[in-house]
Amino acid sequence: MNEKRTAIVTGGSGGIGSEICRRLAADGFNVAVHYGSDASAAASVCADIEAAGGTAMTARANVSDEAEVATLFAAVTKRFGGVDVVVANAGASGFGPIAATEISEFERLIAVNFRGAFLTLREAARQVRNGGRIIFTSFQLAERPRVGTGVYSATKAAIDAMLVSMSKEVGDAGITINSVRPGATAPGMFDDSDEERADQFRKLSAFNRLGTPTDIAGVVAFLASDDAKWITGQHIRADGGMSN
Fold first, then answer.
1. Coiled coil: which residue ranges (predicted)?
2. Which domain holds residue 24?
3. 34, 137, 188, 209: most buried, per Cβ within 10 A?
4. Is 112's pLDDT higher than 90?
């Protein structure tokens, strides 16, 4: 059995997820880089980790499929001997007025952000070893919805509410569960055509800049560490003061 601690990061193939994978590997974790469809991106993250002296594997799963989530955890346990940290980072975005939202779009966001996160967190509660960590990547909009973010905000807020209850359910095993609420981050959230909107978010920050995936990965790494053993059931704002 591998004596190093092991982390699963869903949505680990790009953006914030890839930086979380790299940071946890740098902190000494075996890392399972989960992906939904982009195998090459996941392989690239895995290669980066191994080139830096870490240990990683890639693992594909549709997080909204109950059987595939169970298979994901089983594959990681088979490779590394168990799971100590789960970062439920996989998510989908979509914005627009409620009145203009098609049911297909509503169901897509529910499938990934609510059902997918639920299945991941449920399996984590079943599989994570004593003293482990469960971390959910939420968003500032879960706390402060804006015009056009209603469905997306609701999917994130629903999981944030659920994990407060979960913290009481897994506490006897020394397991903590928390969410991280990033604000606007780049790259990944904005493209060249969104410069005006990006500038609006910069002005909301105390530092007059957007967040970066590295900023968020640092907060996740702290919550995954032994230093965070007394923090549970919390929603950590990691938005550079954008929600103040």
1. none
2. 6-238
3. 34
4. yes
